Amino acid sequence: MKIGLIGAQNSHSRHFCETINKNKKFDDAVISYIYGGDDPAECRKLCADYRLEECSSEEELIEKSDAVVITYRKGSIHYKPAINALKAGKPLFNDKPFVTDSREAKEIIEVG
């Protein structure tokens, strides 16, 4: 399974890469793609450290990935990629902060 990681700024991005790619916690899963528009410098570091392919948009990442992990530091920007991943039929892990609007949270839950 090729996992796409959306968000580079949050330290959780590195922790997911460490756990899944370096420590090989799951035999059939690897983080393969990243969209890190929130922190381009950290995105480049993650690509180099964990052999990730950088995507130019959330949409490209969702299309290429078998599953999606969202780690943006700001909950206010989780909604759009979460909904898009779910509507594309991708399994999703939406890291905290989940969202900042309760209506958005309800919709993510309903679509998921």
Describe the structure.
Helix 4 (79-87) runs parallel beside helix 5. Strands 3-2-1-4-5 form a 5-stranded parallel sheet, sandwiched between helices. It is α/β, with parallel strands linked by helices. The radius of gyration is 13 Å and the shape is globular. It has helices spanning 11-22, 40-50, 58-64, 79-87, 102-111, and strands at 2-6, 30-35, 53-54, 67-70, 92-94. It contains 5 helices and 5 strands; from the N terminus they run βαβαβαβαβα.
- First-last Cα distance: 19 Å
Largest sheet: 5 strands, parallel
The unreliable regions are: none
Radius of gyration: 13 Å
Write down the overall mean pLDDT: 95
Shape descriptor reads globular
Helix content: 40-55%
Secondary structure elements and their pairing?
Layout: E1 2-6, H1 11-22, E2 30-35, H2 40-50, E3 53-54, H3 58-64, E4 67-70, H4 79-87, E5 92-94, H5 102-111
Parallel strand pairs: 1-2, 1-4, 2-3, 4-5
Give me some keywords for this one:
alpha/beta, 112 residues, 18% strand, single chain, 5-stranded parallel beta sheet
Task: Write a brief caption for the model.
The protein has five helices and five strands. The chain has 112 residues and is of the alpha/beta class.
